[in-house]
Specification:
271 residues, alpha/beta, TIM Barrel, 8-stranded parallel beta sheet, two-stranded antiparallel sheet, 10 helices, 17% strand
């Protein structure tokens, strides 16, 4: 599996996002994804499925080969709640360490330095291998990298052709951080798009596969979510073709105002 390297840490370029997956389906899809060849599984405390993700990872028999990411919910970012919540996550996942721990959403009520200091301590204690952030803007990335005593390896953000994230991607690269794209198929929005369908036909691929390849060809990690086992293979099978420069440029032109899908009342002021 191709990887993206950030500060000496290698992140498999295709992972499984598990948002909204629940119960036995979640455990089954996680296990099946690992059997297919996925080596990167992404969950979060807010998803309320860490237990099932852990079951799937264990059932695969390949724990040592798989990078598991989880994310701390915004209300647990003060040092004591953060430490407690991460220990709870470890119990639910049935793991002795989390490979990559992220701040899920910035919380302006908790100083970033305090959160990152608590995460650094967990890393130094061996409970976490690497740390990073999610949904961070350029300004927040600058602040986080200034105050963190441990390297921050990635920023997980909404990223797909319909949303221009060039500023944040450049901000990540400036700090040597990987970009991890959630909702990389725009929650199914890629399917049926005329341009993506046309490019897909030229390569014998689907519109969704073109969308994922457009991101991975830029060195961006993708974590598509699916609830269908047959889609697991489709989303994984994207590294055996290349888009031309003209195709890459054309797809970039799909970005539009209002292309953002994930936007909450607590979202930061987006770039």
């Amino acid at each position: 599996m191709q990887t993206v390297e950030a500060k000496g840490f290698r992140i498999p370029i295709v992972g499984l996002g598990t948002w909204a997956l629940r119960g036995r389906d979640c455990a089954r899809l996680t296990e099946q994804a690992i059997r297919i060849g996925y080596r990167h599984i992404d969950t979060a405390q807010m998803y309320d499925n860490e237990r099932e993700v852990g079951e799937g990872v264990h059932a695969s028999g390949k724990r040592n080969e798989v990078m598991v990411t989880t994310k701390v919910k915004p209300e647990s970012l003060a040092p004591h709640p953060l430490e407690r919540s991460v220990k709870e996550s470890l119990v639910k996942l049935r793991l002795d360490h989390i490979d990559l721990l992220l701040i899920h959403w910035p919380n302006p009520r908790v100083p970033l330095a305090e959160t990152l200091d608590a995460m650094a301590k967990l890393k130094q204690a061996g409970l976490v291998r690497q740390i990073g952030v999610s949904n961070f803007t350029v300004a927040l990335l600058d602040e986080a990298n200034k105050v963190s005593s441990e390297p921050l390896v990635c920023n997980e953000i909404e990223c797909h052709p319909f949303l221009d994230q060039d500023k944040v991607i450049a901000g990540c690269r400036k700090h040597g951080m990987a970009v991890v794209a959630y909702s990389p198929i725009a929650r199914g929005g890629a399917v049926g798009d005329e341009l993506l369908e046309r490019v897909g036909k030229a390569h014998g691929k689907t519109a969704a596969q073109v969308c994922l390849r457009w991101l991975t060809q830029q060195g961006i990690v993708v974590i598509p979510r699916t609830s269908k086992i047959e889609r697991l293979e489709e989303n994984f099978d994207i590294l055996d073709f290349d888009l031309s420069d003209a195709e890459m440029k054309e797809i970039a032109g799909l970005a539009r105002k209002g292309g953002r899908i994930v936007d909450w009342s607590w979202s930061p002021k987006w770039d």
